[in-house]
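It is worth pausing here to work through a concrete case rather than discussing structure prediction in the abstract. The textbook approach is simple: state the sequence, then state the predicted structure, then interpret. We follow exactly that order.
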Amino acid sequence: MKPPRIHTSAQLSSPTPWFIVACVALVVAVGFGVFTARFVSHSVVVAGTITGLSESSGDNGTTFAPEYSFTTQEGRAYEGLSNSGSNPPKYSVGQAIRVRYDPAAPSHNRIESFGNLWGFPISVLLSSLFFAVLGFVMRAAQRRKSQPAAASA
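Step two, the predicted structure:
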């Protein structure tokens, strides 16, 4: 049986893992960006109303995600729950909003706001840029370390 591999600080300071994380995050960001762009291009915007606030507690405190209702252009009523919450709440009960939904599948809907539509792809894209920069910094530090010291005359 092979003993478990132990990573040394030299292996962890290698730029390669950071570039791999950056590439994976970039692929995820592009995938979600394309998905969101397709949703935006095929969806319809209608009026909606905040009907409640769903409370969620976790390690970082309590957040409130808006619950909302809207009626499709065909006159069918739907309800939705935002996948993003905040504290303090961004919305109040009874507040008028705009809802974007897919006419072929109205249960696929989101509150029409930049953050609700593009927040996740942009934050993952920024994370990929952070890890890429970290990889470049690590590579530059490695090169400086491996270069022989200049001889003093």
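Step three, interpretation. The CA atoms of residues 15 and 135 lie 4 Å apart. Residues 21-139 form one domain.
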